[in-house]
Amino acid sequence: MFARLFAPTVTVHAHCDLPCGVYDPAQARIEAESVKAIQEKYQGNDDPDFRTRALIIKEQRAELAKHHLSVLWSDYFKAPHFEKYPQLHQLFNDALKAASATKGSNDPKTGQTLLDLIAEIDKIFWETKKA
Amino acid sequence: MFARLFAPTVTVHAHCDLPCGVYDPAQARIEAESVKAIQEKYQGNDDPDFRTRALIIKEQRAELAKHHLSVLWSDYFKAPHFEKYPQLHQLFNDALKAASATKGSNDPKTGQTLLDLIAEIDKIFWETKKA
Amino acid sequence: MFARLFAPTVTVHAHCDLPCGVYDPAQARIEAESVKAIQEKYQGNDDPDFRTRALIIKEQRAELAKHHLSVLWSDYFKAPHFEKYPQLHQLFNDALKAASATKGSNDPKTGQTLLDLIAEIDKIFWETKKA
Amino acid sequence: MFARLFAPTVTVHAHCDLPCGVYDPAQARIEAESVKAIQEKYQGNDDPDFRTRALIIKEQRAELAKHHLSVLWSDYFKAPHFEKYPQLHQLFNDALKAASATKGSNDPKTGQTLLDLIAEIDKIFWETKKA
Amino acid sequence: MFARLFAPTVTVHAHCDLPCGVYDPAQARIEAESVKAIQEKYQGNDDPDFRTRALIIKEQRAELAKHHLSVLWSDYFKAPHFEKYPQLHQLFNDALKAASATKGSNDPKTGQTLLDLIAEIDKIFWETKKA
Amino acid sequence: MFARLFAPTVTVHAHCDLPCGVYDPAQARIEAESVKAIQEKYQGNDDPDFRTRALIIKEQRAELAKHHLSVLWSDYFKAPHFEKYPQLHQLFNDALKAASATKGSNDPKTGQTLLDLIAEIDKIFWETKKA
Ligand code: NI
Ligand code: NI
Ligand code: NI
Ligand code: NI
Ligand code: NI
Ligand code: NI
């Protein structure tokens, strides 16, 4: 049943330095989804306290997105990946800077930019898992 | 392309108290996968320092699994869900206790028990999202 | 009334997953007292920066209250307690939702609601400790 | 003796930098109780993995005790208190060093030393609250 | 003046409770520099969301400054230091209170006051390292 | 050699996403010094509990080193720097992997490798600050 729900993500991933061998760009993506959703809610609500809370929480979610991205770049991806995907260093640096940019902006487009970059990373990630 | 990769998980989820409206059992599941992978690596390596590190990291990943589960139970699920799924309270309590149990055990079966309980929660979660 | 409820909180308690066996609803209560005090200070001070800081800190204290409540529910209370106090699952879920509600409100009444729910939990907790 | 010391702990307290005005030595005491309980459990169980977990968790609880003590010393106590209780600076420094000492020892006596110092601080704290 | 104070900070230092033996007031100083820089940026930008973010981040950096100061006071400095520098207890208490004050103020002068107190601590620190 | 490298570290730096504009490789370096010192203490003490604590703390300090490095790479360094120093991406990736390696090793040589890589980053950092 799990198989059906998560069918195409199927195998598993890792994310610590044991290393346990489990990594998954979904962690960064979920935080980025949250960032964009917060930006949309900010746009739809002009109560100053609501907006202050939106900024507080967006700061945290964007920081978590950065953390998960950094883990992927430094712990999962290795020399052979960087050879095969020479754009990977810059892609991650762009994604991290995009996450920082969402902290200073309430425009959902910045959240979408971050999501797009994570989607590029996700695509490469799963290609390397299949390889 | 994102659509294809994540096809069946499709819609998005939320996990803070703004609330942003984004929730996803995948967060708990990924940590639980890590817990089980650590238990398996522990069984396959009798270096005492490696095992100590396995215990340190397993403690953290299990704690994160507990956090993500608690957020789902208290923030995502609401009165109508508890009416429709009267087993939900106990299911979450069992899952949290199963996560605690993985801290004190290096048997991958305890990690699998946690994963099975998260899969039950996941099933209900996505049913409520479709409803 | 508080005096009566907390009068017997003389002995000691525990709160981790070793488990050390020490639990105490006072941890959640102290954070909730802080939440309510912050809401009162917010009401008495209309400096925008003070209010922003109140929101930042209230978010943290309410989150800590939620954490301490979740630990009690998943780690301290066990099957026999849930049989004897069938309301316990819902009581904790209500308390966690009340804590979330204090994040989005600056009305001290929401802080008091949280404190009242924690007082109910505290009463049951000490009954089980005496049993 | 604890009963006597904590009997009047009915009223409330504060602990952040808004400041909310709520402080309570119970926060440090609960962590220290946990530290001592962990040391006792360590002595009663010679399973190496249990002992490793005891060390991991004791490190965290002792660190939390230090944090709560530091907050009391820097945020709650002010110039008039230090004049009236000239021993207060050294008492806090001793308590913090006693908390550090519990990290490096599994002897419950070190946990008790920490508890005794916190009890001294607690006594002074409640005298100043009544003043 | 900073140049003179920090010129000899060539050798290295430590900061945990193993203890590893590495301590360095630079950790507190860097956070305090950040606090002051944030206050200056706050003064130069009247966008309400920018100011909210400044308050969020200043709260964190000031808290980190407090943590690093507390570690120095409780872990690095010992009885012989307190005998030789009887002002040390009060100096640290003042510095911690100055850090708290920067949370509630956007005046860079409060950031500078904190930096000046850290510079005094730094001077004594390096004298004791040379001794 | 360290003396030469860090001699000009007189001016100040920044490290958040406001951004405050303060960055300093000293933050990563101090954690790395701690890592290496812990490895040396581990080698000099065969008490199993001491060694367990060394592993616990080393894990934390290495993680902090990684965090500080990641901040420098994603927040401080920008496109013109990457053009002028094309080795920068790989250098940071190597440093992060070296930090991960110190978690899994108790050989002080791995701590020194991390320090050497941070020293390279530090050298470039201060060149860009002067530019
Ligand atoms: Ni992992
Ligand atoms: Ni959310
Ligand atoms: Ni405990
Ligand atoms: Ni407070
Ligand atoms: Ni240290
Ligand atoms: Ni900064």
How do the helices and strands line up, and which of them pair or pack?
The structure is a homohexamer of 131-residue chains.
Chain A: H1 2-6, H2 26-43, H3 48-76, H4 79-84, H5 88-103, H6 108-130
Helix pairs in contact in A: 2-3, 2-6, 3-5, 5-6
The structure holds nickel (II) ion (6 copies).
Alpha-beta classification of chain A: mainly alpha
Please identify the oligomeric state. Answer: homohexamer
What ligand species are in this complex? nickel (II) ion
Largest sheet of chain A: none
| Proportion of residues in helical segments of chain A | over 70%
Level-1 CATH class name of chain A? Mainly Alpha
Total number of helical segments of chain A? 6
The separation of the N and C termini of chain A measures 26 Å
> Low-confidence parts of chain A, pLDDT < 50 over ≥5 residues?
1-14
Please give the number of β-strands of chain A: 0
N-to-C order of helices and strands of chain A: HHHHHH
Mean pLDDT of chain A: 90
Q: What is the total domain count of chain A?
A: 1
Q: Show the largest interface.
A: A-B, 38 and 37 residues
CATH topology of chain A: the name is: Four Helix Bundle (Hemerythrin (Met), subunit A)
CATH-wise, what's the superfamily of chain A? Nickel-containing superoxide dismutase
Strand content of chain A: under 5%
| Shape designation of chain A | elongated
* Structural Rg of chain A: 16 Å
- What CATH architecture label of chain A applies? Up-down Bundle
Organism (chains A, B, C, D, E, F): Wenjunlia vitaminophila
Protein name (chains A, B, C, D, E, F): Superoxide dismutase
GO molecular function, one term (chains A, B, C, D, E, F): nickel cation binding
Pfam families (chains A, B, C, D, E, F): Sod_Ni (PF09055)
